[in-house]
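Exercise 7. Given the encoded structure of a 89-residue chain, write a plausible sequence.
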């Protein structure tokens, strides 16, 4: 039995993001870097690009294509779920 696996090819996020969104690549360990810090997000997003959009001073919306995945508090180093996604699991 031959098993073929291939990674889905998606357009690079940096080419379609507005200038105010910082694009970061999620590492193989599931982490992203922002301003000399590193934060775990999810191993499910390994190798993918996410967008970070500053909502308030030190609070960043984490965006993957269109949906918001949550918010990252840079001071407390915490990620909270997006309000629109709560209660849908």
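Solution.
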């Amino acid at each position: 039995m031959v098993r073929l696996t291939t990674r889905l090819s998606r357009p690079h996020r940096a080419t379609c993001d507005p200038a105010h969104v910082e694009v970061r690549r999620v590492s193989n360990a599931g982490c992203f870097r922002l301003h000399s810090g590193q934060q775990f997000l999810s191993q499910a997003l390994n190798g993918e690009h996410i967008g970070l959009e500053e909502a308030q001073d030190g609070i960043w919306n984490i965006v993957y294509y269109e949906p918001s995945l949550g918010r990252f508090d840079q001071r407390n180093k915490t990620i909270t779920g997006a309000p629109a996604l709560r209660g849908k699991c």
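Remark. Strands lie at 21-25, 31-34, 37-40, 49-56, 59-63, 68-73, 78-81. Students should compare their own answers with the one above.
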